[in-house]
Every structure is written in structure tokens, then in C-alpha cells.
Amino acid sequence: MKKLLWVLILLLLPLSALAEDAESHRDGAFFYQIADGEATLTGCDWDAMQADSLYMFAEPPVSLEIPATLGGYPVTSIGGGVFCSLDGCPVDAPFEVVLPEGLRTLDAYTFTECFYATKITLPASLEIIPEGCFDRVPAEIDFPNGNPRYSCENGFLINNTTQTLLYTAPSSHGIALPAVRRLGDWSLSNYYLWYDDYDPVLPDTLESVGSYVFYDCGVTRVTFPDGITELSPFTFSCTALQEVHLPASLREIPDYCFWDCHLTALTIPDGVTRIGAHAVDWFTGEIIGAVTLPASVEFVGYCAFPDECDVTALNPQVHFETATEYAERIPEYDWYGDEAADALYSDGLFDYELSSRGAVLLDCSRFLNQPEVPDVLEIPSELGGTPVVAIAANALNTSESCADSLLFGIVLPEGVQRVEADAFQCCHAATQISFPSTLTMLAEGSFFHVYAEIDFPNGNPRYSCENGFLIDRDTQTLLYAAPSSQGQPIPAVRRLGDSALDNWKPAGNEIRLPDTLESIGPYALDGQYTGDFSPLAALILPDGVRELSDCSIYGCWEIQLLRFPATLTEIPAYCVANCGLGAVEIPEGVTRIGEFAFYYYDWEQTELSAVTLPASVEFVGFRAFPDECEITALNPDTHFETEEEINQRNPDWAYRIP
Q: How far apart are the C-alpha atoms of 476 and 456, rounded to whole Å?
């Protein structure tokens, strides 16, 4: 959860209402959007259709004909989820869908989970059918007027231009797969949704296989032809799979490729150089006892094989990715490894959940609500007999669970490996937080509205805290500045992390950033002012800074001088919003300025009356500058985003208040 500025919310409420009107229109039972004089169908009022004799569902199947025009605009595209049975489409009445001539584009999820469609008629004008468009659809497909790009014969929908199989209708069951070069995402899962007893014979022409092609089906063995060069993440997620033969032409087994497949043996062909994270991993069922990696393998992703699997590498230089490396490569990955950890458990005063790695602390509010709370909150090393390995988001948020006068220290036990973002958010009561030497992942933004000192009593190979500055040494990122850091120079790091300087204040009236700095995270310099609350004279970004983030310098209310480096190419959305600048110089080299980048919600509090955009600037987001600011663009082709355009690019912009 990030800071909410109620004044700006009030300012934008009228705009959000206008934005909704501008983007959403209705014609009869159909909702649509307009862009460039063309309509995109975005939804249907199914209740209204049932009340209309034209769309009566009393005698199924009904033929639902999408109009060629809506509000006088030609319908050229259909958005995602329009026909999804889980999003309001009647789930108990089979129906047919007829799409009009003139339609050019379908969204990737237009028909996803449209369980009761029996037939879909597509026009000759259709140009784009994305992979995965017909996931879990039981319909037959028809092109009554033909189509220059697509065809459907024997139930196989094919993109003839790319030779990709997009969909298999029920009528395709028992018929040999056609000679295509690619099996598209989800292309066979619709087929296996109804038929679980068929092991496929893949065509010799096949070169690549998309994601979820063999998802949750009854296939027990698959032999890939020699021409296969590419598999995809989650090509298989099939517990029935027992045997797979990989061709010598394969060079990579991607992340999660055979995730949750209960293979008991696997031969990796010589020539494979890379095996992705969790490629052959799972948590239940039988496991591969041993696997040999040929000499060609150079990289093995994190948890590529089950923990119990004995891995022999013939290449002594093969690199096995660590959890830390994987988290940096894919920051949003599911570290806990399973989605079944939803059950909530309690042990005394603590709530937790179980993952494949151990216990994850979720809440300690009962501890904090005791009549007499100890001076130190010591998190147990075990909960329910399971080692505690992680602290979840908001697990130690004390904003609503203890009296304002309560102050205490927090000690995390040895064995904890991971602290999620926002784990300590609004932990106002903490005065000291002690971390274990086992900690390997401490997320940016973990200490929003925290005023505690930090220590590592047993040291830590990755993290350190000196002079109040908590640093990730591996990435050279400043994660947090404790109150004791005030007035001290910011250490030589490459990045200021999310909300890193909440507690820090400069010794004088200037902020001096280290010359080593390359990037600044969201809210890193949020609300900066001097120790005596006087205006900041200057904030100079060093020449090495190449990346700012949304809201990096947000809310420095009375900063007098802000200087950007020549290395900068983008000033992101809300980056310097509500800073009350009197003047700003945009360096040559900046090509993009995001929405509300320099906006100020109260015009009387800013003196930014004019700005010149260099010739390098190509795009200026909606309301990037205050409304009264005079803008001079040296590039006559600079595009200034309109409200209609931001509605199309980001429909939720009006609610994304920093």
C-alpha cells in the first residue's frame, strides 16, 4: 500500500467520471469503446438480452449476432472476456456466436472459458486471432465467407500464414494433428478438456510448442519430432505425464516447462545448454530419483529439479542458479513454490501458513494486544513444529493492533530467509529490528513508515547496516535509512530503493547524492525537507543516474532547484509531482515524460509557469505539467497525450493516486 493524497483524489474525481463516460458507451445490450472512429465491443448486458425477444434464451441454442456497427461506428475489434461464462454470460444456455464482417481483431481472452458456446462464426475480414483466444471453449469454428489468413478444417483452426494450430474443436477428436510448424498456446487444452485418454502423435513438421498446450490433461507419453527447437514455459503441467522423449534439436528447457509432471525418468539430450527454473519441479507425487546433465548444459535454473533428485553434471562449469539470483532475474516469482498454502494455522499468539519450504508468519496482532506486552517481540523459530522461513506482507504492521504509546523491539529468528515487501509497513511501534544471518531476500519497500534501528547481531553475507543505512551489498541498493542516519552522507550505492530515505534528512539545505548512483526507486526521495523544515535549496542528480521511477521525487514541496543529468532518457509518471518547483530544465536526451510527472495539485503552491522541452522529447503524458504552465516544445512532432488516450492506455489512471 502506498501513500494516498486525499486532496489529489478530490481533484481527480470529476476527471474520473468524465473518463468513464469517454471510454464506455452503450448501444442496446452492447457496451463498446471508440478509438479512431472505430468501435471495440467490450461487454454485453446478458440480462437485457434475455428480456429481448431477439436474444431469448428460452429455446437454446440461440444465435447471438454481434452488430456490424455500434453507435454508428464500425465494430473492428472485440475485447477480452466478452464471452467468458464466468463474467456474466449465461452459463446454463448453449448459444452460437456470429461475428460481423468488418471485424479485424480478437483479444487474447475474447472467448476464454466460454463454456456454452456451441458454434462460432468468424468473418472473412478477421486479421488477428491471438494464441489462447479459445481456451476451454467447446465450440465448432466456421468461416462461411472464407478467410485469406485462417482456416478451420476437421475442427483444426490454423493460422495459415504462420502455420500455427490455434484451436482444436471437439470434432477434431481422433483425427491426426495437421502438418503445422507450431502448436499455439492452449491449442490442445480445449481438446483434452473432454478427452483424457489420447496420447498424441505430433507432426514431423513441428518446430515449436506454446504454453499450456498439454495443461492438466490425461496424456501419459509424448515423443517430440526431431525438428522441435522451442518449448515454452508451462508447455506441460500434466500430472499424468510419465514419459517424454526430447529431440536432439532442442537447446533449452524453459522455466516451468514440465512443472508438476510426475516423470520418474528424463533423458536430457546433448545439445541442451540451458534448463530453466522449476523446469522439472513439483511438490507431490513420484519424483525423478536421478538425472544426468550432458556436457552441453551451461546453466541450470533455481529448483530446476526436485530437492530429492540426485543431479550429475558432466560439465564441471555448469552454473546452478541460487534463490537470490532467481529473485533478481524474476522479482515477482512465487518463492514459496505452491499455490496451495491458503490454509491458515495458529500457534499460540501467531498466525501462519505452510509452504513447501516451511512456515510463513502472517500475523502477530494477538501478541500485541496482550494486557502486558513484553519489551521485545521475539518471533519463534518454529510454528506448529515447522521452521519459520519467511515473513509475509503486513505481518508486523502495528498501525491498528496496538496503542500508540507501545514501543518494543523485534527479533527475527535464525532460519528466516525471506522478508516480503511491506512486511513491516506502518510498524510504528518498533524501535529496534534484529535480522538473522540466514536472511537472503529483503524486499524493497519493507519499511514504509518504520522508525526503528536495524542490526544483524550474527552478521549477514548479503546485508549490512552501518550508520543507520541498510544496504543490499549484492545489488548495491540502499533499502532503508534509520533515524540515526539523519544528517549523515548517503553511502556510495548504485540504487536508492523504494521509500529508502523516509527517515533521512540532509545536514544542510541541499541533498547530495553519491556519484555512484544509477537508479532511484519509487518514493525514494518522497517528501524530503531539511531538518528544521525549511525549504530545500537544491537536489542535484549525479551524471550516472539513468533511471528514475514513478514517484521517485514525489512531494518535495518547496524544493527550489532540481537538476537532471544528461544521462536521463525518461521522466516517469508522477516522478516529480507535488514538488512546487519554480523552474525546471529538461536535458537534451529525454524522450518521454510520463503523466502527472511535474503536476501540482494546488497551483497556488507552485511557481512553475513555463518550461521548454528539448528537441529529443517525443511524448508528453497527460497533465505532465500544471495546467497553467506554458510549454514550449522544440520538437514540432512532440505528442501530448489527451485524456481519451490515457483512458485507452490505462483506464485506471484516475485511481492510481500516489
A: 18
For residue 552, pLDDT beyond 70? yes
What's the rounded Cα separation, in Å, for the pair 246 and 294?
A: 13
- All three cell numbers of 336: 514459496
Can you tell me the distance from the alpha carbon of 154 to that of 612, in angstroms, rounded to the nearest whole number? 62
Q: How confident is the model at residue 285 (pLDDT cuts 50, 70, 90)?
A: very low
Residue 61 within a domain: yes
279, 297 Cβ separation under 8 angstroms? no
pLDDT beyond 70 at 26: yes
Grid coordinates given for 246: 526430447
Closest to 106 in 3D by CA, of 90, 95, 122: 122
Model confidence at 58, pLDDT cuts 50, 70, 90, reads very low
Q: Which of 17, 64, 70 is nearest to 42 (CA)?
A: 70
Q: How far is CA 279 from CA 200, 236, 263, in A?
A: 22, 10, 12
**Beta carbons of 101 and 123 less than 8 angstroms apart:** yes
Please check whether residue 495 is in contact with residue 518, taking contact to mean a CB–CB distance below 8 angstroms. Answer: yes
Measured CA to CA, the distance from residue 503 to residue 484 in angstroms comes to 9
Distance of CA 96 to the CA centre of its chain: 35
Structural element, H or E, at residue 313: strand 310-313
How many Å apart are CA 469 and CA 484, to the nearest integer? Answer: 9
Phi, psi of 582 (to 5 degrees): -85, -30
pLDDT at residue number 422: 83
Residue 164: count other Cβ atoms within 10 Å of its Cβ: 20
Question: How many Å apart are CA 81 and CA 129, to the nearest integer?
Answer: 14
CB 618 within 8 A of CB 596: no
Rounded CA-CA distance 263/499 in Å is 45
Q: Number of structural domains, the chain? A: 1
Q: How far apart are CA 504 and CA 102, in angstroms?
A: 60
- Assigned domain for 58 exists: yes
The cell numbers describing 537, all together, are 535549496
Half-sphere CA count of 196, side-chain side, radius 13 A: 10
pLDDT (tens digit per residue) in 149-204 = 999 999 999 999 999 999 999 888 878 899 999 999 999 866 665 445 567 889 99
CATH number at residue 114: 3.80.10
**Cα Rg of the chain, angstroms:** 29
Region for 20 from its dihedrals, namely left if φ exceeds 0, alpha if ψ lies in -120 to 50, beta otherwise: alpha
The cell numbers describing 583, all together, are 523552474
User: For the purposes of burial, counting CB atoms within 10 Å of the CB of 78, is it exposed (0-12), middle (13-18) or buried (19 or more)?
Assistant: buried
pLDDT, mean of residues 16-44: 75
Q: Measured between alpha carbons, how far is 147 from 142 in angstroms, rounded to an integer?
A: 10
Q: What's the pTM value of the predicted model, to 2 decimals? A: 0.53
Whether 172 maps to a domain, the answer reads no
Grid cell locating 312: 550429475
Indicate whether 518 belongs to any domain. Answer: no
Range of the domain at 66: 25-148
